[in-house]
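Most newcomers find our protein records easier to grasp once they have seen one. The structure tokens are whole numbers drawn from a learned vocabulary of backbone shapes. The record below serves as our worked example for the rest of this section.
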Amino acid sequence: MSALLPYLVLLGFLAATLGFFTWLARRIRRRGTAGGGIGGALAAYEEAFRTTSHASHYEIRAQTERKAPADSPDGWRRWRRKG
């Protein structure tokens, strides 16, 4: 049993480290406080390992950047083409 103790300590340390980084990533995503570097690293990770999550991330970003047409003062929406 004493021969396995260093391996168990190492395994426990790795599990705690991965758990901490998972918690940190969720907190950063939820609060939206990720800077450019962290956001890029998380996007690269999702692109490599979670392809569906990565695709939906870009779709959500595109949806938030779209602007809904505003109502005119008289209550009717005016659909005009810009250009």
Summary: The CA atoms of residues 6 and 12 lie 10 Å apart. The helical segments are 5-31, 36-49, 51-65. The chain has two domains: 1-33, 34-66.
